[in-house]
Request: fold
Amino acid sequence: MSEISGIETKLLIAIVGPTLAFFLWFGKRLYDERKNKRQAEKDKQNLIRALYAEIDFNTRDMEIFLEKSIPQEDLRKILQDKPALIPHITDARHTQIYQARITEVHNIADGALHSLVEFYALLEKIRVQVDGVNLPSYKTLTTDGRVNAVEVIRRTAEKSRARGVELLGIFERDYEELGLARRHRN
Reply:
């Protein structure tokens, strides 16, 4: 009987040992998966916060630019009176977060992704348009052509401002748990 008991013990150890090892391995995998999922969610939230701040900054710049822009007819008169004048338009967009984390934007909700790409494309378009005003060929345009060049920038800035406001609203709604809100800046 003790011989049978010894075999049963060995059999029990042979079954329980690997089973226990399997459950420990499986438990570790579950733990790691949950830990990775929490980290991915934290990374996504940090990306959303950073993009929100950058979009808010750029949108506020568009609002200030549009607010301080002189009316088209006043611009026309100034450019007629001073044909050599090149309007001073500063391109101070901030795109470092978007550019540095471009590979992560696919994690953003579909509703915001299209608007996000369009917003940054409009900022890039403004950069190119501002560069155009600073080219020597700008001085060779007629007064109407020079006014139109500035108006194109203004219209693109308005589109960018509108897209930025829309995008900030989408982020505030879709990521309500983050408590995102626009910051006032001078």
The CA atoms of residues 65 and 157 lie 8 Å apart. The chain has one domain: 44-178. Residues 44-178 form one domain.
